[in-house]
Known about the structure:
Distance between the termini: 51 Å
Amino acid sequence: MELKLYFYPMRNFFLFSFLLITIMTYGQSAGDYYLLIGTYSTTPSDGIEVYDYNSITGQYKFVGKAATKNPSYLAVSPDKKFIYSVAENGQPNGGRVVAFSFDMVTGTLTPINSQPSMGSSPCYVSVFKDGRHVAVGNYSSGNLAYYSVNEDGSLNAPQNIIHHGSSITKGNQDSPHVHAAVYSPDYKYLMVPDLGIDKVMIYPIDPNGNINTVESGFVQLAPGAGPRHIEFHPNGKWAYLMEEISGNVTALSYKNGKLKVLNSVNAYPADYKDLHHGADIHISPDGKYVYGSYRYKLNAIGIFKIDQKTGKVAPVATQSTMGEIPRNFNFDPSGNFLLVANQNSNDIVIFKVNKDTGLLTDTGNRLSVNKPVCIKWVKKM
Length: 381
């Protein structure tokens, strides 16, 4: 009898331990976010890829894809019900913008409708805070398309906003080249970096999301800068701009719809003599560091420390992206990992972030994707 009393509790203990380990393992593998990847699609089966992503472990699992042509940049509606994608086409007036519904349970994307981008090579899309307007930048034709959105997420025909001017770099700056369209933190302005005219155009936005093109302003950058992407600091007082041609990361102050340059630096080695090719820019969620991607010869992420009193930046280091043409990258929602989309080596490299030093360590994790470009997140319900 004593033997039975001893045996059964031990068996129950081992059974309980097994179940606990199983539950913990399942919990660690189950994702808390969807990872959406925009691509330069090359076959009818390519398009936007969707993964289940665990922000604690950095692990992922393929969910599915939506076939669409060259969805090189994506935006998520605030209610997470809709995804908007550019369809990047360099033919005259060949660009389009596509609206998808997004199923939060299955991770499935379903096309709703599409509209012309009123230009060529649309390369950026963003959504107003209530989801009722969408802004799209056309690179080759240098114009901004501004859409109203219906209740079902579908896009109406856009307002076409045309830029004018040029700058000093022959070939790249003979005409306007809109490369981004980013709402200010208060959603009262739309910031539009134009690589071709060395300006960030600033358009007032009314409370209903309508754009005012009559009272627009701008911040002038150095000749030959080539402003490309811009992102605001979590405190809402600073913004950081990646310049494609100069390769500089430029820090700006922001107040009441006005941007003012604080300083401008780059992370290139002193002996680097090739073209710069700056691309994307993102700020760590804690606001301590800003990161910029450099393509082609360097293929690296530049790491810059943000002075928490002045907002100015100073270079810290460069980190190889372990691949070719890091056009875009993004932090995962935890800020613990940085995912870099290497367009020409067909993979996404996952780096561990040291939040104290800002430095990156290759985790060894690789996500194989054909021509990955844009990385976005949707938190599960």
